[in-house]
Amino acid sequence: MRKLAAVLCIDVAGYSKLMGRDEAGTLSRVKATFAAFDPALARYHGRIVKLMGDGALIEFASAVDAAVCAIALQGVASATDPALRFRMGLNLGDVIVDDGDLFGEGVNIAARLQALAQPGGIVLSETVREHVAGKLNVALEDLGTISLKNIERPIRAFAIQGEAPAQTSASRERIGICVLPFANIGGDPEQDYFSAGVTEDIIIDLSKLSSLTVVSRATSFSIKAQSARAIAQQLNVAYVLEGNVRKAGERIRLSAQLIDGANETTVWAERFDRDIKDVLVLQADLAKSVVEALRLRLLPSERQALERTGPTDPEAYKLFLLAREYNISGSERHLP
């Protein structure tokens, strides 16, 4: 099958020399940096087609997303391991898809452009420049028309001028996520306040993490039933978290799944079954599971905020949720 795709090829400059000095250490550093790329790739909908030692082939549906992501990845690399310098080449062209892999001239051009890039630099083909013109706040250096190895026609190339700044904890890539209201499947409409309260607590827990941008309660609770892809596009988020709650006596069962908004695949799913007195620990465990599924790197203070131990008084928690529901809705329906 053929399709049009934006293709990003990346590798580590001087990789052979680095491996000659310290094979195990270099391999570990490269793996750590690639892991740090995940949030940016998720935000800009990049798909890693394959990893090749020090390099990677990444596919995007949008040339703009690909270019912005390439700049972001250079920033992440600089912050994660300044001694590793990545070269990147980006092309928009026709590719052949075979068993998830990409082939064809569109890929070959990206690889040749990568070889032209300076360490820490990004080189674009003219087709990419045409699509990103006026959409990127960067200067492009015209490298002229270049004959590339094994490419029949000359290619006009452009280099992004200047290096991407290293990201700080305040400016690092943030992943957008929407937590939909967890459904009450206990069969008792009077327990709606409980499922709503659990949902809000999960939103609050995830909002404490600087790696995430979490849609507000007011917005997520107002969304009408639709596909995860539609919600992701409407709210400009990468992931949708949904689930259900069943409260029966002194037990609570919560099921949740994290869905990729780009392709509607389930990234993670789990069922939690606990005593009602452990409801806050359950919520913290769910938040930590989302962190692990998205491979987020937490600050020490954020990790500490998700560590909850000890039981909760069920009656006190019930009254707290009822009071919060009344404060939000003004309804006295569930009040004792």
Secondary-structure topology with pairs:
Layout (H helix, E strand, L loop, with lengths): L1 E11 L2 H7 L1 H14 L1 H6 L3 E6 L2 E6 L2 H18 L5 E13 L2 E3 L1 H12 L5 E4 H7 L7 E7 L8 E6 L14 E5 L3 E2 L7 H16 L4 E3 L2 H6 L5 H8 L3 E10 L2 E10 L5 E10 L3 H16 L5 H6 L8 H16 L7
Parallel strand pairs: 4-6, 9-11, 9-12, 10-12
Antiparallel strand pairs: 1-3, 1-4, 2-3, 4-5, 6-8, 7-8, 12-13, 13-14
Provide a descriptive summary of the structure in words.
With 336 residues, the protein is an alpha/beta fold. It has two domains: 2-160, Nucleotide cyclase, GGDEF domain (Alpha-Beta Plaits, 2-Layer Sandwich); 175-329, 3-Layer(aba) Sandwich (Rossmann fold), CATH 3.40.50. 39% of the residues lie in helices and 29% in strands. It is built from twelve helices and 14 strands. Strands 1, 2, 3, 4, 5, 6, 7 and 8 form an eight-stranded mixed β-sheet that branches. Strands 9, 10, 11, 12, 13 and 14 form a six-stranded mixed β-sheet that branches.
